Amino acid sequence: METDTITAISTPIGEGAIAIVRLSGPKAISITMNLFSGKNLNEADSHTIHYGKIIDPGTKEVAEEVMVSVMRAPKTFTREDVVEINCHGGMVAVNRVLEIILNSGARLAEPGEFTKRAFLHGRIDLSQAEAVMDLIRAKTDKAMSVALKQMDGRLSGLIRRLRQDLLETVAHVEVNIDYPEYDDVEEMSHEMMQKKTKEVLMEIESLLEVAKQGKILREGLATAIIGRPNVGKSSLMNTLVQENKAIVTEVPGTTRDIIEEYVNVRGVPLRLVDTAGIRETEDIVEKIGVERSRQVLKESDLILFVLNYNDELTDEDVKLFEAIHGLEYIVIINKTDLEQKLDLNRVNEMAEGNPIVTTSLIEEEGVDELEAAIAKTFFAGEIDSGDLTYVSNVRHIQLLKQSKNALEEAMEGIELGMPMDIVQIDVTRTWEFLGEIIGDTASDGLIDQLFSQFCLGK
């Protein structure tokens, strides 16, 4: 277990009202006390804050005017002594305080090391630790709500209960094998094993059913806006973002590159990509943009295909319909304030049942209908962030799929009448996969890799 004292800046770098330098470890209070002119921190009560000054031991000069929070173990995030020094938010001020602390015996924390210590000391499990970063990166209120519930242990509690059910089943089999002479121990029959494994399997399948929604809430829906030049793609992006991020002109081919922006559409975070119009071009810069657009198309979860109400359907439009065949898309017929030249019946045929929304972005008409279509496409119009336990982490989803496969193999073995000690191998594998989610059976290498993705100071 780590015994040194770590420190880092825990607020974003830049100018602001305040910045926080955090220390955690056995010498957090004593190191700070040696630099602090104010109340004797060694005598201060836990979870109190004190005014004073940081004195540079080298020059004996006042380095900064601060407020120091003292939090004593074990009732802290890391279950170690923690000190947070609140100083002025300028880059020079906060870096000077950090440098003085480092020169006084603390070590610069690695990315995610504060949260890693909370995990290693049993303050949180691995899924709760990962939820900390999900909370920081949340793009919508609902994504934040899901992360908070995971931090509170909703997913952890469910996983622990499933593991306990499996453990009891395996233990029952072991008793039957090792102590067959015990008449008072009920024999684990194939029917009992099938019933137990089926119950756990159904719960895992329920988690996987909403995993797609959870992943979208966590990572955002990769959404590409495509269409011929000058059909209103950039105007659509500006309308959704509600500010002018893309240049809108009457000249075809204005968008020369990929523009990305996160948009909150009825609780659904869209990672919105405004692409260059996909067409044949000799302009070398525009040609690069078109190639990038084709790649974005392949990687998108949702495509917003914009057509012009004032233009007839062209060969380029038809090629785009062919390019997105089999993908998830919504057709947007824009510029309905102008004269109709588009054959709506033909568009309806080519859309193959995908949603069609009409808009006049210049008149701000049809935007609500578009947002409703996006939400309905992925969440049947509503997102239940209340009672459902969402699985949003790709690692968790993969482990749940592995657990499901192992249980299905166990049930297949039961149906074939295989010996119980053989069937229990797959049940034990499921128990181990579920343990990796909360960190009970995770390797040190995996733990180090996960925490290395955290931001410095968290």
List the SSEs and their pairings:
Blueprint: E1 6-9, E2 18-24, H1 28-35, E3 36-38, E4 48-55, E5 62-71, E6 82-88, H2 91-103, E7 107-108, H3 113-120, H4 126-137, H5 141-151, H6 154-178, H7 190-209, H8 211-219, E8 221-226, H9 233-241, E9 259-265, E10 268-274, H10 284-299, E11 302-308, H11 315-323, E12 329-334, H12 344-351, E13 356-358, H13 367-379, H14 394-415, H15 420-438, H16 444-451
What would you say this structure looks like, in words?
The protein is α/β, with parallel strands linked by helices. The protein has three domains: 6-109, Probable tRNA modification gtpase trme, domain 1 (Gyrase A, domain 2, 2-Layer Sandwich), CATH 3.30.1360.120; 132-210 and 391-451, Up-down Bundle (Four Helix Bundle (Hemerythrin (Met), subunit A)), CATH 1.20.120; 220-379, Rossmann fold. Helix content is 46%, strand content 17%. It has 16 helices and 13 strands. The strands form two sheets. Strands 3-4-5-6-2-1-7 form a seven-stranded mixed β-sheet. Strands 9-10-8-11-12-13 form a six-stranded mixed β-sheet, sandwiched between helices. The longest helix has 25 residues, at 154-178. (6S)-5-formyl-5,6,7,8-tetrahydrofolate binds at residues 22, 84, 123, 458. InterPro entries: G_TrmE, GTP-bd, GTP-bd_TrmE_N, GTPase_MnmE, MnmE_dom2, MnmE_helical, P-loop_NTPase, Small_GTP-bd. Its EC number is 3.6.-.-. Exhibits a very high intrinsic GTPase hydrolysis rate. Involved in the addition of a carboxymethylaminomethyl (cmnm) group at the wobble position (U34) of certain tRNAs, forming tRNA-cmnm(5)s(2)U34.
